[in-house]
Amino acid sequence: MNNLSTIVSFITDKTKRNAAKYGDRLPAHTKDGVYEFSENGFWTGGFWTGLNWLSYELTGDESFIRTARDSYPRLLKRLYDTPETLDHDIGFLYSLSFVADYKITGNPEALKVALDAADRLAERFNEKGQFIQAWNVWKQGDPFSEENRGRIIIDCMYNLPLLFWASEITGNQTYRQIAESHANTCMSTIIRSDFTAYHTFVFDPVTGEPKFGQTHQGYADESVWSRGQTWAIGGYTHAYRYTGNDAYLNVARNCAKVFLDKVEPDLIPLWDFSVPDPKTAKRDSSAAAIAAASLLELTKFVEGSERSAYETYANQVVQNLFEMYSTNHDETHEGLLIHGCGHHPAGKNIDCSLIYGDYYFVEAVARLLGKTKVYW
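^ that's the sequence the OP posted. Answer follows.
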C-alpha cells in the first residue's frame, strides 16, 4: 500500500502546478486531460478553493492560501452583483471558500461574506413545503424548468452545513430551523423507504404538497444514482453532527449500508447501481471519493464492527483511487482522479476529471491524516 505522504505529495505538487496556470479561474471538469473553467463558478467553484485550503492544511505552504483567495473576486461578484445566478449550491460555493478561510485564518472579511451567503441560501426556503428550492427556472414555459419552483435535490443535504454553521456563529436559530426543516422534508420524500435516494423530488410550490420523485442524473426515476446515495450519507451525517437528532444518524447509517452493499468489488461504484448491464457501465470515481469522506465523518458517531467497516472502505478506496483511478503517473493531466461521471443521461462530463471528485479525494486523505479545520 502507498504511504499517505506519497499521495499527499502527488496532490499538492499537481495542485501547485495547476495553480500556476489557472490564475483566478475556477476549474470544473477536464477535456482531454485539461481542465475547462466556469466563468462564475457554476455550482462547483468552491471545490477548487477548498482543495487549496486542504493543501495548505496538509503542507503549511502559504502559497495555497494565496491561490484559494485568487478566485474570490469571481465568487464575490456572483454573490453581490449577480445573485440571481445562485441556487441552493450556495453552500458548496461559499463553505469551501469563505467559511474555510474564516475557520483557518480568522479572517473577519471572510466571515461577513460567508454569513451573507447563508442569508441568500435561507431566502430560498419555501415555508409551505418546508424545503429549500434547489434550482432556478432555467427556461420560462419549459415544463421541467417550471417544476424547479418546487424542486429539491439530494445534493442540498451537503449545502445545509452552511446554515448550521451560521446559526452556531451568530446564535440566530432561524438558520438552524430552516436547515432542520429541509432535512426533515428530505427524510420523508427524497429518501425512499429502502434508504435509497431519488435525485430530485417535486412539490407544488404554492401549497407545498409533495408530488413525485425524479432521478434526473441517474438511469431512471426509481434507480439508485450512486453519487446521490453518497450525498445522502454525508449530508445526514453532518446534519446529525450539528443537531444530535438520532433520526438523521439512522438515515446516514442505512444509506451507507445500501451503498456498501451495492458497490463494486474494487469499491468504485457504477455511475448508477441500477443500470441493466453493469459490465459495460461507466464508473464514477467522484462518488467513491465522496463516499470515503462521508464515511470517515460517520465513523465519529458509530462503534465496533460498523466503524471498522467504514474505516476499511475509506482507507482501501483512497488506495484504489490513487493506484487505479488517479493521474499519478501522468504529469500532463491536470486532474487528480480520472473516470468521473458528471451527467450521464445528458452525455456531459463523462469519463473525465471532476473538480468535486478531486476535492473529496483530497478531503478523504486529509481526514485520514487528522487535518479537519476545513470541513463543513
